Amino acid sequence: MCGIVGYVGDRNAFPILVNGLKRLEYRGYDSSGVALAQNGEITLYKKQGMVKAMEEFALAGDTSGSTGIAHTRWATHGQPSDKNAHPHVSNSGNLVLVHNGIIENYQALKELLQDNGFEFHSETDTEVLVNFIQFIQDQEHCKLRKAVRIALTQVTGAYAICIYDKNKPEEVVVAKLGSPLVVGLGINEKFIGSDATPFLEYTKDAIYLEDGEMATLTAKGEIDIRLIESDRAVNTQAHKLQMDLESIEKGGYDYFMMKEIYEQPRAIYDSFRGRLLAEQGIIKMSGLEEYADRFRNADRIIMTACGTSWHSALVAEYLFEEFARIPVEVEYGSEFRYRNPIIHKNDVVIAISQSGETADTLAAIKMAKEAGAMVFGICNVPGSTIARETHAGAYTHAGPEIGVASTKAFTSQVTVLTMMALELGKIRGEFSTSQYRALLNELSVIPKKVEKVLESKELVKEISALYKDASNVLYLGRGVNFPIALEGALKLKEISYIHAEGYPAAEMKHGPIALIDENMPVIVVAPNAGHYEKLVSNVQEVKARHGKVIAVVTEGDTEIVQSADHVIEIPETLEALTPLLTVIPLQLLSYYIAVMRGCDVDRPRNLAKSVTVE
Ligand code: AGP
Question: Which of 179, 261, 306 to mutate for ligand 1's pocket (most ligand atoms within 8 Å of CB)?
Fold first, then answer.
């Protein structure tokens, strides 16, 4: 949920730290800070607000130093403020630390430290941790690395930390449990990040620390990885990063979200490239093939995810049950992990996560593994925790998604899940070859059809201007487009702060229709495939009560176009694939309304891109 950056080497650390924090602001941005090693002292700059505010504050001072650690925060303990901003310094003034995660037992540690004369200046669990490490160092009269190791064996919770001692600034210690941390391997320098984006332009060689590992990094470029529990040395192979800098820049768009909406044709193509072989009429997914028997013999598939990823699971429920005839249950990670569910050993669990770091989804995975289920992960970030925790999986290959509102990751997830449903249908013999080939061929041309939908952006912009001041909006869909109604509502509320709800269209008569009046815009997802006639009636029911209807229809529509106030057209496609097209106008609508309302589209208030705490 927070972002950490560190540097030790022979360059000036400050610009590396600040640029790195700006790339991690998607993880949280309520305050930020840097700690620089200068002439045997720690120089600290911390500021509430975006990284830029802290940068301007620091540039008024001395920003020299070739060792530094930095942090951008999403508050967990203690409200956003200068004093709660990281880094935090121990009482002795010797140790300084940044932390992403939650120390569950920080209260007990704080009382122990207070009993030993320690004082606290912030409300954070992080300040407790840095002082606990100092407490251990004082007790054991030991080096920083040993003090960190001993302290962490007595800490419960999740952490990715970076710490150094002002008396030995050429050495930085990092450790990881439950929160991501990656080390960039420079020649006479080492970089640290919550992901690899802070140091992409400096090195493509990286090591993703595993849970329970710590490392000591030196200015001479050495790295010593150990297990926290046993202090046993670990020999980890470096990972060659595939990302490039250009892909994480905005590319001329005002916001990352719009860039990522327009990247969807490419992202969908990349998610099936090398997997969907339309000419040969086959789908090849290595993770699926490796566990084909488990899927073939599964009595049930449980899908677990959060937010938008949960919506892609809902779409998949329709597709898996339709094509593979496997019973599917969809669970919020946060509910699944706590309700003591019945999980059978021959269940297959599919966990879906863009970031691969969502704490609730990760906890659900661990629970399912303990129950003996096979867990298949669908993630977008290579090397992410969920990708490494699951037995097998498939990356969505959508490329870095920076905007907090998920767009290309969603359509890539749906693409991967659609291929899985088709393949499992074939494996389980539930599918005619002609039906299978028809869907395969149509899926292969969906990127072109998404490009066609994107051409309606000016129309969507005009419609957005008419409804940007709405207080409430209803989204309606049926069948495989009911989850799209939910997704459209989530997009709108999370970036424009307008209250919005998604409903199965048929549910209107069971209550929500009471809400309809001339102030209630209703978005109806009504392609000509699947329950169309029922949706025609739903539109008329809304109009009869003076509601305003914006309908997403198939091009050439002749019925709904007569009663809706506005229609946005999508190209004809097969019913099962309509979600990949119907979601696009809803993404654009939420984007334009948010921009017109002056919202920060990429960094909406109260949110972060990756929810790595529960
Ligand atoms: C989506 O627009 C939201 N930002 C949020 O709901 C997100 O989908 C959710 O937090 C799950 O994230 P994940 O896919 O990285 O696990």
Answer: 306
